[in-house]
Amino acid sequence: MLQRASQALWQAIGQWLPTRRAKKAKRERLPVVVCGLEYAHYRLLTHFARSTRYRVLAMVDDYPWHHGTQVEGVRVYYPSEVPSLVQRHGVVAVVYCHEDDLAVFADETRERLAAWGVPCVCLMPDDRDIDAALTSRLTP
């Protein structure tokens, strides 16, 4: 009788574990890159820190003294490093606040991002639901 109970327990655990792993995989947050280091960008960064859908993988700035530093635990990269981040980590979008934020990217980098289907999305930290705004711009 004890053996039957033990078998039933292991069978239940065997059924429970794969569903738990599948749910965890579904909850994995999608990586985005924030282009800029001003206050508006910081506000986006803090929003994404609380988001259940997206996470900031990297911030981008072209000033050499910012390169390699961290803002709230997120590393600052050069704009030329973004294509490799996209390839390695599956970045879904480059997020910016002002039109001139994208001036840091060379034309070649913008073309590569477009070819890979990674959009540059303008978001304002004052938007009510930043996650929904980003999601609506990512879906075709």
Describe this entry's structure for a reader.
23% of the residues are buried. The protein has 140 residues and is α/β, with parallel strands linked by helices. It has 5 helices and 6 strands, in the order αβαβββαβαβα. Strands 3-4-2-1-5-6 form a 6-stranded mixed sheet, with helices on both faces.
Structure summary, number of beta strands: 6
Distance between the termini: 57 Å
Shape: elongated
Low-pLDDT residue intervals, each spanning 5 or more residues: none
Q: What share of residues is helical?
A: 40-55%
The helix-and-strand class reads alpha/beta
| Radius of gyration based on Cα positions | 20 Å
| Percentage of residues in DSSP E strands | 15-25%
**How would you state the average pLDDT, rounded?**
87
> Main β-sheet, in a few words?
6 strands, mixed
Order of helices and strands: HEHEEEHEHEH
Q: How do the strands line up in the largest sheet?
A: 3-4-2-1-5-6
- The number of helical elements comes to 5
